[in-house]
Fold each of these.
Amino acid sequence: MTMLKSINRLFVLGVVASGLAACTAGPDDTGVEYAPQMYHSTPYEPLTQIQSTEAGSWLDSNPEDGHGEFYNSNPYNKFGMTMIEPVEGTIKRGTYLADNGIDPTDYATAEERLVNPYEGKKEVLKEGKELYLRFCEHCHGEKGLGDGLVGAVYKGVTAYTSATVKDKKAGHIFWVITNGKGRMGSHESQISVDDRWKIVTYVQTLQKQ
Amino acid sequence: MLTKKQSMSKTPRFVLTSLFFALTLLLSTSLSAQDAASEEGAADGIPTDAGLVSAGESLFKANCTQCHAIQEKVIGPALKNVHERREKEWLINWIRNSQKLIQSGDETAVALWEEYNKTAMPAYPFSEDEITSILAYVKVESTKEPVAATTAATGDAQVASTGNENAVSSGYLTAILVVLVVVLVLILIVLGLIVSVLTKYLKDQKGELSEEDQEVVGQKFDLQKLLMSDFFIGAVAFIFVALLLKTAIDGAFSIGVQQGYQPTQPIAFSHQIHAGQYEIDCNYCHTGVRKSKAANIPSANICMNCHTAIKTESPEIAKIYKAIDYDPSTGEYGDNTQPIEWVRVHNLPDLAYFNHSQHVKVGGLECQTCHGPIEEMDVVYQYSTLTMGWCINCHRETNVNTKDNEYYSKLVELHSEHSKEPMKVEDIGGLECSKCHY
C-alpha cells in the first residue's frame, strides 16, 4: 500500500513538474504570463496591436464589449491601428525653423537664407560629432570621405572634401540632411532641427580638414 | 556636335589614328626622360608623366571614386579609355558643368543624361590642368588589367572557403566521435566474448581448480537481486524526485518571464547584417531611444534611405515595397499603403514603468547591456529576464553616471559626506517602489 501511495505521489509530482515546465517561454511562445491582464493593456498601446477579437476570451471580465480581454485595436482607424499619423500640416514643436517656404530641391536659396544658430560655436562640436557618428558615419565615413561601411556598397556617397561640396555653406548642408540630395534620402524624420544644425556645424569642420 | 568618327570616312581615319597612336607611344616612351610629355608631347593632349598622374590620382580619389571606377560601371559610366571615346574639350566642359552641356543640346551629353536616368553629375570647378591630370591618371589606369576586381573576388572566395572549412572540421569531429564510440562498443563485445570463452574453458577443467578459483568462475551476476535492492530503489527514487522537483521549481520561476522569446517576424530583418556587419548605429533607426519611453520600431522611410538602391531584388525587401506601395522599377510611391505587422518581442507588464531615454541618454547605458549581443542576432530574442530582481540587481550595482552632469553635483557632495562608496542608483531612489510602480 505504501508503495502504491508513494508511486501515486510521484505521479502527481511528475504531472505538476511537466505542467510547470511548459510555462517557459520558447522561440514562438511567450510562456505563461503571471497576471495576463497586466501584459495586455486595456488602453490603446502605441507599439502593440491585437486584432483578434477572440484573444483572451477565456479571461473576459467584460462580456458586453463583444471581444476578448486582450483585444487591442482601434476599430475607427484604418487597419485597426492603435497609432495614427498627425493631421496633415501639423508642425512638430521646434521644427518651424526648417520650413521657410523654400523648395525642397532649392539648395541655393537654402544656402543663402538659412542661418546656422551654432555658427562658430565650438562647444556644440562634441555633440555634433556624436550625432554625426550616429546618423552619418556608416555612409560618409568617420572623416567624411564617403568611405563608410555602408557607403562602400551603396556608392555615390559624397566626400565632404570633394571640390564640389567643400565650400558649401551651412544652409546647403542643412537642406541636404532635411530633404536628401542625389542618392541620399531625407533624414527629416530621424533628426530634429536642432540636432541637424549641430551635425552641420561638425560637418563644416570635416569639409576644411 | 560631330565627333571625329562621323566627320571622316572610315579607312583614312583608321590609318590616321593608328599612326597617331604609334606616334604617341613613341613620343611618350622615348621622350619621357625629358619633359617632353609636359605640353603637346602626347597627341591627344593628355601627357602621362609621373608627377601629373599622381596629382590626378589624388584628385580622382578625392572627387570621382564615389560614382566612377575605371573598369566597371558604378553610378556613372566606367571611365576606361574615356580619352579615346570623347574629345578633351568635351570632357572639360562636361566635368566643369555637365548640366550646361546637356542644356546646350549636345547630343552625346543628352544621350548620357537619358541613359543614366537623369542622374546629374555635379559641376566640378577644376582648372584645365587639373582635369588634364585626372585624365592622365584615367589613361594610365585604362592600360592596366582589372586587378582590383579579381582580388576582391578571390577575397570572397577565401572567406567562403574558410567558412566551408569550419563546417567540414565540425563534420569531421562528429565522424571521429561516432567511429570512436563504435570502436569502443566493438572492444566491449570482444572482451565479453573473451571472458565467456575463458570461463567456459575453466569450467571444463573443474578438477584442476582451487576452491577460490571455483568461486570466481562460478560467480553469477544477479541482475534481479540488484534491481530489487533497497539501495538501488532508493537511489533511483531520489534522482527521479530531484529531477522532477528541479523541473517544477524552474518551471514555476519561469512564469511571467519571457526570456528567450524569439518570434518569427513578417520580414526577415537581420540585426546581424545591419548592426553587426555594416555597423549602422542603433540610434539611426531606433530614433526614439534617447528621446522617449520607447526606442520605437523604425518607419519604412528609414529602410528606404538605403533600400531604394540596395538589395532591390530581394523578396524580403519586396515586402517593404509592397507595404509602402513603392514601385522599384519606376521609383514611384502609390497610395495603397499598409502597416508592416512586426511582432513585439519585449513586453513589460503594465504594473511596471520603464523609460528608454532615462537609461540610455541620462544613464549612458549601452543597448547591449539589456538587449544582449543584438549585433549578432539574425532574429531578435529577449536576452534578459526583465524581472524585478534583475532590475533591482542592476540598480544596486551600477554607479550613477554623474560625470559632466551638474544636476548631480550637490547629490554627490551629500552622498560622499557619509559614504566612501561611489553613488549607486539605489542611493538616489533606484529602489523606491513608486519609481517604477505607480
Note: The radius of gyration of chain A is 28 Å.
Amino acid sequence: MLVLEDVHTHYGKIEALHGVSVEVKKGEIVSLIGANGAGKTTLLMTVCGNPQATSGRIILQGRDITREPTATIMRSGISIVPEGRRVFSGLTVEENLHMGGFFNTKAEIRKSQDHVYELFPRLKEREHQRAGTMSGGEQQMLAIGRALMSKPNMIILDEPSLGLAPLVIKQIFEIIGHLREEGITVFLVEQNAHQALNLADRGYVLETGKIRLHDTGKNLLANPDVQNAYLGG
Amino acid sequence: MAAHNLKHALFCAIVTLIVAYPILGFNLVSSGTDIILEGATTQTVISVLLAAVVVFLFQLFRDNIMALLGKAPALNPLANRQPMEQSKRLKLESTILTLIIIGALFWPFFVSRGSVDLATLVLIYIMLALGLNVVVGLAGLLDLGYVAFYAVGAYTFALLSQYYGVSFWFALPIGALLAALFGLVLGFPVLRLRGDYLAIVTLGFGEIIRILLNNMTSLTGGPNGIGGIPDPTLFGMEFGRRVKEEGNTSFHETFGIAYSSEHKIIFLYLIALVLAVFTALVIRRLMRMPVGRAWEALREDEIAARSLGLSRTSVKLSAFTIGAFFAGFAGTVFASKQGFISPESFVFLESAIVLAIVVLGGMGSQLGVILAAIAVTILPELAREFSEYRMLIFGAAMVLMMVWRPQGLMPMRRIHIELEKQE
C-alpha cells in the first residue's frame, strides 16, 4: 500500500529523517511511535509531500509519489487526519464533512456522509452546530469523519489521542479498529504507545529520525527497551 | 468610589491636554513673507482644560457610568429578535436588493448633477470593495496593494484610447483581463507568504506600479498623466455637444432632445450601476460554487484545506485573479469618468480606503461591504461643512465603529449549502 524506501528529509540544512524505511501493507494497522521530536510528524508530512523527501522513494499503491505536489497526493486515495484535528471551526459539522468530499459528486458525498453519521452518531446530532463549539473528542471524530468523506483506501492519523480524556481516547481507538474491518488501511502515529501498539498489527519505533525497532505490535509491547522508553517501565 | 481609576483617569486627562493643546492652540499666521507661530487664546486654553476635566471625571467614574448605562432598557428594538430562517432571509434580502437596484436606476433623473457624480464614485468604490472582499474577506489574504490593479485597468483604457483610439466598450474587458493577468503574476511570488509578509509584498507591488507609471514618462506621460480619455458611447452615440469621432452620431440629435451635459453624467452612472450589479452577482455566484468554499477553507485553516487535496496555488491565485479582474473593471470606469488620470489617483491611501470599506462592512459580507462603501465615500462629503475637521470626524467614526461593531456593519452570514433531499 504505502512504502517508504530510505527516505531522507531536510528542513533547510538540517536533516530530520536519516533514511527511514517503512512499509504499510493493505488492510493493516501500522503504528509509528516515538518521543517528542523523533520526527513522527515530519515522516507523515513527507508522505504528503510537504516538505518533499530529499532522497529515497515513497510509493503509494504502486505509484511513485516522491516528487508529486501535495494536492495530487491527497487526491490519490489517501486521507490524513492532521495533528491537532484542524477542523474548520467556523463551518458546521455538515459543511466540514462536505469539504472532505470536495472532489466527489453530490451523490457520493451524500453516501459517504450517511456512512460517517453511522460511524459517529454524535456527529449526526450536531449536524448544524459550528465545529469550533464542540468538545475535543467530537472535533476529533469530525476530523476522522472528514478524512473518510473522500473514500480513502488508506487513512493516516497524526496523534488522534492528543489532548483527549482517557474515555474518549478509548472510543477513538475503537473506531480506528473498526476502520480496519471496513478494509481501510490505517497508519497511526502516536505518543500514546500502549494503546497504539495494542491495536496495531505491526509497529515501528522512531528515534531521532531513524527507525530503531520494527516488529509486530504484541512483540513491541513486550520488548523491555520499548517498555522502558515509552511505556513507563 | 472609584479610587482605583484615579491613576488611569489622571493619565487620560494629561493625554487629552498633550494632544488637544498643540492641535487646537497653536496657529500658523502668515505676516508678510514670514510665518509666525501664535500661541493659544485664553478661550481655547479654557476649553482644552474643560475637556481634560470632563475626560478625567468620566474615566474616574467610568464603572458607575457604564453600570448605569447597562441598566438602561435596550434602545435597539432589534436586539432581542430571533435570527430569521435562512430561506426567509434570502428571500427578503433579494427583494430588498431588487428594490434598491430599481430605485437606483431611476434616482439620477431627479437629483442634482453633483449627487449623480458622487454616486458614480460610490459605485466605483463598491466594485473595488467587492473585488477586494474576495481576496481579503473570503480568501483571507491581506492585500495592501490592491490599488495597483485599479491603476492597471485605468491606464489600459487611457493608453489604448490614446495610441490606438480604442473605445470604452472594447477597453473594458481588456482592462479587466489585463488587471487579472497582473493579479496572477503577483500571485506567484506571494503564494508562500501569509499575514504580515503578504501585506508588505503586496504593498510593495502597489508602489512599484505607481512609481513605474510615474517614471515611464515617454509612454504614460509620467506625473502629467493622460488626458482626453473618451466618454463611453451608447451604440455609437456620443454624449458630447458635437460628435468627436467620425461615424458616430450624437445622443441628443438622435432622440431630438435638447443637449444637456447631464446626459453624459447619468449615462456614466448607469454604466457604473450595471457593472457594480454585475460584479456583485458574479461574486455572489462564485461564493456558492466550490471555489468559494475552497477560499473559505483556505482562510480558516490552510493545513486542513491542503490535507483535503485542495491546491494552495490554484485557490490563492484564483482569489487574486478574480479580485484584480474587478479592480480593472472599476479602473476603466474611473478613467472614463474622470477623463484624465495620473499616478496621483493611485496612491496607497486608495488601497487603505478600500480595505477600510471591506473591514467596516464586515469581511466577506457583500451587503455590508456595499453599505460601507456608500458610508465611507459619502461621509467625508457630508462632513464638508466642518471643513478642516472633516477627516477628524471620519477617523472618529471609524474608531467608534470598530469599538462597537468589530465584526463590521453586517457581519458575514454564511450561506448554508444543502444537498437536495433524496427522493
Note: The first strand of chain A starts at residue 2 and ends at 11.
Amino acid sequence: MDRLKTLMDWFDVRLGVREILRSNLQGYLLPRHVNIWYSLGAVLLALFTLQFLSGILLLVYYLPAADKAFVSVERIMNAVPYGWLIRTLHMVGSNIIVAVLLLHLLSVLFMGAYKKPRELTWLSGFGLFNLSLILCLTGYLLPWSQLSFWATTVATDAAGAVPWIGEGLVTFLRGSPSVGAGTLGRFFALHVVAFPLLFLGLVGFHLFCVRRAGISVPPFGPSARPAGVGTTFQHEVHRDGIPFFPNYTVKELAVVMFVLAGLVAITVFAPALFLPPDALEPADPFTTPDHIKPEWYFLWAYQTLKIFPSKLMGLAAQGGAMTLLALLPFLDRGEERRPFHRPLFLTLYGLGILLLLGLSIWGHRS
Amino acid sequence: MKRGVLASLTLLLATVMPLTAAYAESTSASGEAAAAETVCLQCHGGQAGRLGAPVSPWRQSIHAKNGISCHDCHGGDPADFAQAMSPERGFLDVPAAAAIADFCGRCHVGVREDYLASAHGRARERGPHCVTCHGSHTVQAATLELINAKDCSRCHEFGRAGQIKEAVAAVDARILAVERDIAAMHRIGFATRELQDELFNLRNAFHRLFHTVDVNKVRKETEDFSRQLDFLDGKIAALHAELQWRQLVGSGVILLLLAAGVLLLLLRKTYADEERGRKEE
C-alpha cells in the first residue's frame, strides 16, 4: 500500500494525476436523474475492449491466406486451448455490439441528446456506428468460408453500380477482378490495423466531446425544460449531481455484468445463433450456396435493395437515409428535448423503428 | 465553412453507406450457379416432353445436391452447345439395360461389384438394375425404405428381402442417429470432417452389403458394422462430454457475473440512499 502511495506521489509531483483523477472521477458530477440508458456507452466500451483482446488472441493462430484461413479458424475452434471460447466470444460479441449500438443510438435520439451543443458528439458516435458495421463486414471474410466468400463477392460487386467509376471501384476493393487471395489480404489489413486505429481515434474524440460538453440532463420529470443553449462555450455542470465515481460507475458496471452474462450464455449454450451453416464450409468459388441471408443487422438494407427497381437507386436511398440521420442535429435545431413535447419527431421516430423492423422481418422471410 | 463541413459529411456518408449496404446484396446469389452454366441444363431445361423431363427430377435429387450434373454421368462437353453430345467428347446416351450396372458402377464401384455377384446381377439381362429400385434422374439418398413389399413383389415374394431388411434395420437406425449427432456437433463448430468421412465409408460399405442379397452374409457382417458404430459413438460421446464441461463452467461464470451485477446494484442503492440523505440535510 505504501509502495502504491509512493508511486502515486511520484506521478503526482510530475503530472498532477490526483487532480486529474479527482476532477474526472469523484469531482465529475452527473445529473441526479441519469437513467440506465446512459450506461450503454460504458457497455460498448467494455464490449469493444473484449473485441480488441479476443481479436489479438485470434491473430496469434489465424493465417490470412486463401488456402490456410479456413483451416486455421477450424484449428482455433478445435485444437488451440480455449480457442473456441475466444473465437465464439469475438463472433457473438460483434453481434451484441451492433444491438447495443442500435439501442444507444435510439436512446440518444429519443432523449434529443444529439441537439446543440452536442452535434459533434452525435457525429462522432454515428461515425463509430458505421465504422463498427464496416468492421463487421471486413471481419466476415476472414474465416474464408462459403458464406464469407459469396457474401463478399456480391457485396463488392454492388460497388459496380456506381456510375463511371464502378468497375474500377470493384477491382480496387477486391485487389483482382474476382474475390481471391488479394481481397483477403486487403480486408485483413483493414480489419486488424486500419479500421481499429481509426476507431480508437474516433472513440477518443467521442469521449472528449462527451466530457467537454458535459452529460445531457434526461428530458423527463416535472423540472425538465428546454436546454436554452447560449452562443459561447459553456461546460454543462450539475452542482447538485451525483459523483461519476463510485456512485454512478457501480450502476454502469452492473449493466456491464448483465450484458457479459448474456454474452457468455449465448457463447456456451447457443454458439450457432450467429453462425449460419454456410459459415462452417470452406470457400468454394465454383459452388454458390443456396439461401444466403445477410446478418440480421443488414436485413433491412437487403430488403430495401430488393424493393427498388435498380441497384443504384436502392444504394442511393440508403445513403440518403443515413446522411439525413447523420445531419439530424443541423436540421432539427429546436431547443425542446422532451419527447412528448415533440409530437412530429416522436411520430417519425416510431414509424422509423417500425419500418426498420418491418423491412428486417420481410428480408428474413423473403 | 458550415456548408463545406456539411458537404464533406454528405460525401463521406454517400461513399461509406453503399459499401455497408451492398453487403446485403449477398442474398441475390442463386444456389445453382455452377449447374446453370452447363449447356445441357440450359437446352434441356427449356424443352417439353421426354427431352426436358429429366431436368426437374434431377434438381431434387441427391446427385444435384452433391454437385453431380448431367455430364458427370453422360459425358460430353458441358460448356459447348455444338459438342455437348459429341461421342468424341465422351458423350454416352441412355445405357442398355444390361449395361446400367457398368454405367452407374463407374462411381459406385463397390456396389457394382456386389450387385454383379448377386442373384440380381446374374439375372441382369431381365432382372432388376440400379434404376429399378433407385430411379434414374430422381435418385435420392438410399434408405431402408427402398426394400419394401410393394417394389420387391413386382418380381418375387418379399420373404427373403424382408429378412434382410429386418437384419439391417437396427444398424441402419444407428447410422442415422450417428449422422444426426455428427451434424449437431458440426453445427456448433466442432471439426467433424474425420467422423463424417468414417461414417460415409461405413455407410457405403453397409449399403454395398444389401446388394449381395445373401441373408447369411448380411446377418454375419451386420455385427461387424455394429462394432464399428460403437467406436464412432465413443468419439461422439467425447465431444458431448467436452460440450457439457463447457456449459457447466459457463453456467458458473454466468452466475458469478449475475451475482456481481446484483451486488453492484445494491451498492448503487446504498449510494442513492446517502445522496437522498445529503440532499435532505
Note: Chain A touches chain B through 76 residues (CB under 8 Å).
Amino acid sequence: MHIQSLIRKILKYLLTAMLLISLPAIGLSQQIIKGTVKASDNGESLPGVNVIVKGTNHGTVTNFDGFYTLDLKPEEKVLVFSFIGYEDQEIEIGTQTVLNVTLKSKNTAIDELVVIGYGVQKKSDITGATIQLKGTELSKQPVLTATQAMQGKVSGVQIISSGNPGSTPQMRIRGTGTMLGGTHVLYVVDGILTDDITNVNSSDIVDMNILKDASSSAIYGSRGANGVIIITTKKGSSSAGKLNINYNSNIGIRQASNLVKMANAAEYKNYYQAATGIAISGPTANTNWYKTILRNAFEQNQNISISGGSEKATYFFSTSYLNDQGIVLKNNFKRITLRSNIDFNISKYIKTGFQSSYANAINENGFNNLDINENGNIGSAFNDAYRAAPIISPKVGDKYGNVSAFNGQVGNPLLDIENNRVRVAANRIQAAGYLDINPFSFLSYHSSIGTDILFRQARLYDYKFLNDETNFDVAGGNQLNSISYLANKNVQNFKWVWDNYITFSKKFDKHDFKLMVGTTAEKFQETWLSGSRKDVPADSDLWYLYNGLANSSQNDGKGDIWTRNSYMSRLNYSYNDRYMLTATLRRDGSSRFPKKNRWGTFPSVGLAWNINKESFMQSQHLFDVLRVRASWGVVGNDQISTDAYTNTVIPNLAYPFSGISSGASNGSQINQIKDPNIKWESTAEYDFALEFGVLENKLSGELNYYNKKVDNALINVNIPSTVGDADHQILTNATSIQNTGVEVMIKWKSSVNKNLSYSIGANVTLNKNKVVGLNGGEPIWGGNIGAAQGFTTLTDNNHAIGSFYVLKVLGVFQDDPEILNYKSSNGTIIQPTAKPGEFKYWDKNDDGKIDDKDRDFAGSYQPKAYFGVNINVYYRKWDFSMDIYGNVGNKVYNGKRAIRINGKDNIESALVYNRWNGSQNPSQTQPGANTGNLLASDYFVESGDFYRINNLTVGYTFPDPFLKKLNISSLRVFITSQNLLTLKKYSGFTSELPGSPLDSGIELSTYPTTRTIALGVNLNF
Amino acid sequence: MKTLYISIFLIAIVLTSCSESFLDVPIQGGATTKSDPDLAQKLVTGTYNSLLQGDSWGNGDVHGFAFISVTDIASDDADKGSTLDDQKVPVGDIDDFNLTATNKFAETLWSGHYNAIGTANQALLALSTANISTQTKNRLIGEVRFLRGYLYFNLVRMFGDVPLVMRVPKDQTDANNDPAFQTRVNKQIVYDSIVSDLQFSVDNLPLKSAYPVGHANKGAAESMLAKVYMYLQDWQKVYDLTQDVILSGKYGLVDYSILWRQAGDNCNESIFEIETGSYNNSNLGVSNYTVSQGVRVGGMGGWNDLGWGFCTPTTNLINAYEPGDKRKDATIIFIDNSGTHKGTVLWDGFRVPSKDSVQNLYYNYKAYASASKETFVNQNDKDRPKNIKILRYADVLLMNAEAAYHIGGDVSTPLHLIRQRAGLADVAPTLDNIWKERRLELALEHDRFWDLVRQGRASQVLNAVGKHFVAGTHELLPIPNSQIQLSGGKLTQNFGY
C-alpha cells in the first residue's frame, strides 16, 4: 500500500513540471474530454495516470487530484487508462465529454498475475498450491538471501536459518522427501535454474513465486520434487515516464542471540573434584572461551538502482555492497553485485530483452558451504570453546594458553581460529536474453537462453607453530603444526539453458483455452584444479604455491558434464471464470541416468472451482472469494552424482614397487558395484484446498491438505563384502517416504480510517513424515557423533526420517541398593558396575545388560508444526511490522554435550548446580558429577520448540514539504531488528540445526544464530 | 500471410528436438578399458595397492592393525599392550580369545581380503581382453594370481571354509543369485584354488633377476606355494620347491638387525614384501602399521611419543632366546627400568625415556621407523611407512629344514645357516629345535599364531601362557555377524561362536 502512495507522491511533483511544459499544446482541440480517475480499492483520486488515445502516442496524465483533460481529433475514439499497480482500462468515448474512470487495483488478492513456470497465470485461475511473496517484503530484512527473509511468511515452507555469513539457509517444502538425493530446492532466476541464490541481491527481486505442490512444480519435471521457487528480477517501467533513482541502505550490529553459559574456574574445579576426587592445582585463569572467540559484528548493506524507460525500451540497473562480519573472530563475508535488465519493444510483434547480473562474494575464515573442501578450524573452535578448561588463559602476551597440554584432546579455541586463514572468492555471472514474438493475437512464441558462469577460488593457509615455549605458556600437548601449508582450489562452472515455447490462447464464448508447448535443453560443465605445497612463508603476500617447497607439491583436478533435454506442455482451460482445469505433461531426459531409464514422464492435473462467481452466489454478500482446488502431480528428484549408475575406474591407487627409493607406479582399481538401473526419485502428491475472502476481502485465507509420497527414494543398501565393493554399499532406489500435512493461512486487512490501516496474517503448517517402504526392512543408522555414542539416529519404517534412536533413561541411581535391585526378569543385575549418581537405563529387551539393542525411538528433528505471524500497521507517516516464527514438536540432540569425553573437559554451569548430589540434590534427571563418555540416551534429546520475533521494523516516511526543498521524491528511515527475541526450551545454542536428512537436528559445532539491530534509509529521487 | 509463415517456422523450431546424442555424455574422468589402453596394467598395480589396506575400524584391513592383532597379539609372542583399557574391544578380545562374531577386526579382515580379491578379479577380467602380448599378459596374470592365492591363503588360515569368489559379479542381482558369492566352500577346495593360482605364477613368472623389484616373481611364487604345501603337510612338494628357490642362487641371508629397516628393503634375503614409500608427495604405506606398535607415552609423560604402544613382546618370547642370540635385541625394544633414567638409545640415536614416562616395558623393534636415519616424504608423520616382509629366505630355509626332517633329508645345513647368522652354535636337527628356530627367527613377523595352529599345539602353548584358547574353536576367527546377516543366513558360522 505505502509503495503506491509513494509513487503517487513522486508523480505529483513530476506532473507539476510536465503540465507547465505541455500548456502551449492545449487549444487546438476539436473535442475536449475530461474527467477524474479514482482507485477502486480506496476511492482516492489517482494522480499520474496515463491517459492515451489507443493506437497513438497522443495522451496526457492526470494531475494531483486525478483530473485530466484531453483534446481529441474526430478519429480518436478510444482512451486507454494505465497506471502502475492497476489494471489497464480501455473505454470508448462515444459522445461523452466527461469520462470518470475507476481503475481496478491489481492488488486485490485474487487477480494478480502469478509466474508459474514457462508462463504466467491469473491467480484466480490457478489450480495448484503456489504462493507469491513481494520483493519489498523480502528486501526489508537485514539478511543475505531472500530465502532467509521468507521464514515464517509462507505455510508449508520450513526455513532453517543459520548465523553463518554467506550461507544459504536450508529449506524444506512440505517435509523431507529424500534421504540421499539432494535436498536443494530448485530456484529459477529469470529462467536460469540453480540451487544457490546467494548471488542475488534481494533488493533486485520483484517477486518470488513458491510452487509447493506437485501439480504446480510438475512443469519442472524431474527437478521439482523439493519444490520450486521462481524469482523475477526488476525491470524498468515506461509508465512512470521518469528516471528513478533509488537508494537503500542499512547498517547494523550483530551478536550471538543465545550462548550457553559454561562453568567458571571455581565451578569447574569444584565439579572436577566431585567427579574424580582429585583437586586441580595449577593454572588459575578464569576464561570465558565463548567471549574470547566471539564478538559484536558489524553489518551493512548498500543498494543503488536506476530505472526508467520509454515505450521502446526500459532499463533497470543496480549495484549493491553487502558486508557481513561473522560474530566469530576473523570471519567476514563481503559481496558486491551488479545488475542490468533491459527490455526492448522492437515492434508491435516483437519484444526482446536481456537480464544480467554479476556477483563477487568473498568469504573469509568461515564455515563454507561452497563445496570447496578448504575449511578452517572454526568448527573446532566452537567445539573446543565448549570443552576447554576455564582455568587456562587464552593468551598471555604473545603466548597461548596450552589447553591441550592440560587436556590432551582439546585445543586452544583462540589458536584454532588464529592458526589458519581461509578465503573463498566466488565470481558469478548470470545472464539471460529472451525474444518474444506475437504474430497473431492468439499465438506467442518465447525463446530464451540463459547462462550461469561461476568461478570460485579457495585458499587455505595453515601457520607453522610448535608446541614449545615460544608459542605456549607451557610446552607440550598435541596442538602443533610443524610445517606451514598452503592449498588452493579453483572451480569453474559453466551452464546454459535454452527454452523455446509457444503459447496459443483463444477464447470461444465462455471457453477460455491456453496451450503451451515447448522444449528446453540444458548443459552443465565443471572443471576443478587444486594444488598445495608446504613450507610457505607466513607473510600473506607470499601465499602462492611458487613460494612453497616444490617437492611437497600435491595437485588434483577433475571435471563433470551433464545434459538435460525436456519437452513440456500445459493446457489451461476455464469455463466462464468458474471452472478451471490445468493439465501439464513434461518429459525429461537426463544424461545422469542409464540409457534405459533416461527418460521420465511427469504429469499433473489440477481443478478449481470459483464458487463465488456462480449465479447462486450473487445474492449473498459474505464471500467475495470462495474457491476450492484439487490437484495431483508427479515430480522427480535427480540430484545424484553423474557416475551413480556406471562403474568407473578409481585412479591413484598406486604401489611403490621399489620402496622409498623411487616413486610409486600408477595404479587403479574398479572397486565399486553400481546399480545400473538407478533412476530418479519420484514424488506423487495430492493437494486439496479451500480459499476464501469475506467482508470485502478484509479477511482472506487458504486451507490446504497435502499427501505426498516419494517412491524409489535413493538409499545406500549394504551388500556383502564378498561382492568386492570397497565401501560395501550400493546406491539404489529402494524406499518410500510419506509426508502428509495441513496448511492454514489467514489474513485480516483493514483500514480503520484515513490515517490508520493494518493487517495481520498468520500461517501454520502441520506435517507428518514417515518412512513407509524401506526395502528389505533394514533400517539405516545415521547421526554418528563418534566418541562413546556412535550413531544417534535410525531411519526405519513407520518413523520419521532420521528419528533419534537412543537408550531411555529411567532415572538416576540414588544409592547402591537401588543398583543391586535393578534386575532383569531372570534376576541378572542390569548395571552391576554403576555407581550412585549414574543413569539407570531401560533394559528394553530384558537381557540383563545395557547395549545398543536397548535403544528406542525418541522423536525426530522434524517439527510437528511450524507457524508464522506477520503484522503490519500504518499510522500517518509511521509504519510498523513484526514477523514471528516458531516451531513445535521437534527434537534436537545436544551433541556437543554428548561428546564430552574427558574429565578435564569443561561443563555447563547449569549442570554444576543441577547435578545429582546425593541427599543434597537427589535428582532423577541430571547425573552426578562425571567425566563424560555417557552413552547415547534420551538425556541428550531435548525439545526443539521455539518462538521468535524474526523481524521487527519501525519506519518513518518524511512529509512532502520537507522533501520538496531537497528535491527528494521520498525518504523513509527505519530501524529494524532481526531475531530480536527467541523463546526456546532447548539448553544449547539453537534448535535450528540443518543437516542431511539422516542426521539433522544434532548440535555439534553449529554456528550460533545471530541477533541484528540495524538502522536504514530508503531514498528516492 | 507472412506472419503465418513465421508462425509455422517458430512452431517448427520449438518442436524440433535436440538429437538423442545430446544426452550421451561420457562420464568425465572415469576411465574404461577402451579409453585407457594401459588400464589392465594399472589394475594389476591397483591389486598390489589393495595389500596396503589398514582401515581396521572401517571398511577393510589386510596388513594393518587388525592383521597384527590376529597374527602376533593372538600368539604367545606379543600382548595387546598399550593401556589397560585401550582397544580392550576388539584387540583385547583377540588377545585373550574372548572373541565374538561382532568383533570389528575380524570383520575388517574379512572385508579387506574380499576387497582385495575383488580388485584382483577385476584386473584379471581386464587382462583377459587387454591388447598386449601373450607373454606380458601371462606374466601380469601370474602376478595377480599370486596375490589372489596369497589373499585366499590368509583367508583360509583365518576363517577356514570361505566363499570362493573367482570372478566379478555383473551387478547386484548376479551377486545375489550366484551362490559363489555367499556360500562357504570346504577349505580343501579353497586350497586347491590357491595351489592352482600359485602354480600358474610359478609357471609364468620370471626369476627375480629377470623381473623388476617389488613384483611377484618365480621365487616368490615357489616360496609361497611351498608354504601352502607346508600347511597341507605335503612335505615332498615343500622340499622340492624350497630346494628350487635355494638352488636358484638368487637369495642369501643378510645382517639380521637391518632386515626391518629401510636398509633391508628388497635386500638379498627378501623374497616378497609389502612395499611402502611415497606417492603424490605423501607417505604411502599400511595405515597404522608403525604407529599402532610405536612406543607410547605414559606415567610422567613430557615427550612426543612414537605411537599407541600395542603388540608388546611377551616375557615368554624374551625368555625363549638363548644367551648371545643377536636376534633378541633386533626384535625387542627394552625400556630402561633400572631407575638410572638413562633411557634406551635406539639404533639411530633416538633416546626413548625410561619407564617413568613410557607406558609399557617392551616394544616391537621391527615396527620402529627412524625419523632421522630413514627417508620419508613426510618425516613428521608418526605413522611412517614400513615394508612388511611376507616371505624371506630364512623362512624358506626353515621350511626346507622342516620338510627335510619329514622326508629324511638334510636338516642340519639350513638350520646351521640360520643359527650361524644369529651368532649361535648348531643344535640337534629335531622338530622342536626347528619350530623354536622358526619362532625366534620370525618373531613378530605375523607367522607365529598360524604356525602354532599348523603344528597342532596352539591350545597347549597358548593356554600355558594363560590365554583362554578353546581347541576346535579358536583356531579360526568367527565369521562376521554382519556378513551372515547380509547373506540372508547363507553364510554359516564357525564352530563354537
Note: The radius of gyration of chain A is 32 Å.
